[in-house]
Amino acid sequence: MQTEIAADIAAIEAISSVPTILEAVAAITGLRFVCIARVSADAWTTCAVLDRLGFGLKAGDGLDLATTLCQEVRDSGRPVIIDNVSADARYRDHHTPLIYGFQSYISLPIHRADGSYFGTLCGLDPLPADLSNTATVASMGLFAQLISKHLESELKLSESQSALLSERDTSELREQFIAVLGHDLRTPLSSILLGAELLKREPLGAQAAGVVERMRRSALRMSTLVNDVMDFTRGRMGGGIALNLHSDAGLQQSLEQVVAELQGAYPEHRIAQDIDVPGCVYCDSGRIQQLLSNLLKNALVHGAREEAVLVRAIARGGELEISVANGGPAIAPATIGQLFKPFWRAAGHAASEGLGLGLFIVSEIARSHGGTLEVTSENGATRFTFRMRAGESVERRTVVRA
């Protein structure tokens, strides 16, 4: 049994979209503890967890099944959803909320492709939450189905990759799942952002204002994840990232805004800038901002904290050059060759740092602009440099993709 559970934990850990799913559930529901649990007839085991309440559970940890509501989900095959324990006649005196101290709770069953029961996608919070609304329940159902689909794919791959699916077919299938996830998240995410903005306009107490602000930040973070996922699927399935090319006379201000925003987000780091982009640059300025933002964020996260990150953007002789340099240990040549692959992370870097799509998207933006991107790393400094033709003479490609 222990071997079987260990294999199930490994199967969940092998699904690269699991951290995104847990972040999405937390953002949509407002719950601060979310996990995927393997639930057998006599055991409850954590497979993946997002814990902002400090419960201390990690993958492989177990709970007494009799103390959980996941046993009820397993026995009935139906979700358990509680908006407010104190106002719920069925659960207000139940032992599980009393043991774990939650007021809001949701748990949906996860089934394998053959219909057998795997476990639950569940979450809880000490505060009440509106979980039973149609949009939240539908989104949670999508996530549970997505996990089930990925479990099926992982099982097929582990048993006989060559006999079941070719590498290309598997890759396309996963990208389609990611595309569905990104598309279907947009509507509930937009609702959350709109609701948070409306609530901010109302007079609120300090605690309520803090909750609203956390909701807004979570939704914005989730929006970034969704945008990265959609860019990934366009890049891999649509032949390149879509561009809105035009002559932009304000690119310098746009790049300076990126630096200012990230300096505010990382106040403990120093950022030095040399930006001189006069006149018009024919480009998609929003995508160039995204390129600089991803490169600068990468430098801030991975560079030596005691050394300033250097941002340089120069437009001269019909060419635009943007570079970001940071101090720290040199990157091995073999590693440099992996940097622009999707979902790739260096060993020892946590999944919480992002999806591993930032540099892949940078490379796709550079390619779509007909530009080049190079990396040098030696003598304690790493530099990413993007170059493209900047003048009006650049080939006027109009790329229109959904």
TrEMBL record:
Pfam families: GAF (PF01590), HATPase_c (PF02518), HisKA (PF00512)
The EC number(s) this enzyme carries: 2.7.13.3
Catalytic activity: ATP + protein L-histidine = ADP + protein N-phospho-L-histidine
Top-rank taxon: Bacteria
Family matches, as Gene3D superfamilies: 1.10.287.130, 3.30.450.40, Histidine kinase-like ATPase, C-terminal domain
Keywords, alphabetical: Kinase, Phosphoprotein, Transferase
Signal peptide stretch: none
Sequence ranges assigned to domain Histidine kinase in this UniProt record: 180-392
Enzyme class: transferase
Protein name stated in the entry: histidine kinase
Species name: Massilia frigida
Record lineage: Bacteria, Pseudomonadati, Pseudomonadota, Betaproteobacteria, Burkholderiales
